[in-house]
Design goal:
By secondary structure, the chain is α+β, with helices and mostly antiparallel strands. Helices cover about 40% and strands about 25% of the residues. The chain contains eleven helices and 15 strands. Strands 10-9-13-12-11-14-15 form a seven-stranded mixed β-sheet. Strands 4-1-7-8 form a four-stranded mixed β-sheet. The longest helix is centred in the middle third of the chain and has 31 residues.
């Protein structure tokens, strides 16, 4: 009887001590060079703001569905895999966001996998390098990238199957998007090859009250910005464009901006389109040569360059020939590399 009692006691203690699975996750960590006094955990149907202390530390509990979320610091974000039961610690330096993120604690190995995957995708899908290929070369390289990403997922069989299955499922759609996006740029360069005569325009309205033709600009390289007042990404490039123009002032290059504002984007009024264009040029103190395309998207110069989305940047040489029908944006460091290659 005594033996039975002791056995029952041991079983009772064992059951009592067994941990109940947590129905929440804990996330904590330290942010160096923080951009904000808070972090946000984001998903399509979820948002949680976490306070960041003056010393960069943070901690909170989350009741969440298993999935991949964005950890957003007000400037940049990194993917983070969360599920109830995780006790995750994160450290990162915003000066090297994706490269510096490290994880410890429960769930760390899965998030280390995500971080490694992000860096691999960034390395493989280098748009500048892929854009240098021809159409056949792009096709081959996209297939190589696909195989490398599949191998990467298959070699991490210890990682949560949610991440592996979800990651492999996303490879095809992601590569299809990049192939189409980069393929359009490559096709454009094949249709408008370097060294061929540039499409031209005649007597476009100049902000100074005169008119300007492309032939008036021969003698220097011409960096062309196709934009519109309503275009958010266009306006985002303005600070970089102004800085670039200032840096290359007095050199063998001129900066030309052509607005394609039209009646459709300004309440059916061409007068309103011109008004808004002039107002923004003055308000933003835009430099360089500022022109207004007479028919917006339908202007022949815009059509000839096959411009279907903005901002779009062109580079034309001093003789009026194409250097690039899809030049790097001002915010892209490769634009200065291109200028250096051309001895500008």
């Amino acid at each position: 009887m005594k033996k039975i009692f002791l056995l029952c006691s041991v079983l009772a203690v064992s059951v009592a001590c067994k941990e109940t699975p947590k129905n929440y996750a804990t996330i904590s960590g330290t942010i160096t060079n923080k951009n904000s006094d808070s972090l946000v955990i984001l998903a399509r149907d979820y948002s949680k703001t976490i306070k960041v202390e003056d010393n960069g530390t943070f901690k909170d509990t989350l009741k969440i569905e298993t999935g991949i979320y964005s950890l957003y610091d007000g400037s940049e974000s990194t993917p983070v895999f969360l599920k109830n039961g995780f006790d995750l610690n994160v450290t990162l330096d915003t000066k090297a966001f994706d490269e510096s993120v490290k994880y410890t604690g429960t769930g760390s190995e899965h998030n280390a996998f995500l971080a490694e995957k992000s860096l691999l995708v960034e390395k493989l899908l280098n748009i500048d390098e892929l854009s240098k290929l021809n159409s056949t070369g792009l096709e081959t390289e996209i297939e190589n990238i696909k195989n490398e990403l599949i191998t990467f997922h298959d070699s991490n069989s210890h990682i949560d199957t949610f991440l592996i299955n979800q990651g492999k499922k996303e490879i095809e759609p992601m590569l299809k998007f990049y192939k189409q996006y980069i393929g359009e740029s490559i096709a454009l360069k094949e249709e408008l090859p370097k060294g061929s005569p540039s499409p031209t325009f005649e007597n476009y309205e100049n902000i100074n009250g005169s008119t300007t033709s492309l032939s008036d600009l021969k003698g220097k390289f011409t960096y062309v910005d196709i934009w519109a007042t309503w275009c958010g990404p266009c306006k985002a490039e303005i600070p970089a464009l102004k800085a670039l123009e200032k840096e290359y002032h007095g050199k063998n290059i001129q900066f030309l901006s052509i607005s394609i504002d039209d009646d459709r984007s300004h309440g059916g009024s061409w007068d309103k389109a011109r008004e808004n264009w002039k107002a923004m040029v003055n308000d933003k103190e835009l430099g360089g040569i500022q022109l207004f395309a007479p028919k917006g998207w339908q202007s022949q110069f815009i059509q000839d360059y096959k411009i279907k989305g903005i901002p779009r940047f062109l580079l034309i040489d001093p003789e009026g020939n194409i250097v690039s029908p899809d030049a790097p944006r001002p915010s892209n460091k490769s634009i200065k590399e291109l200028f250096t290659e051309l001895n500008i």
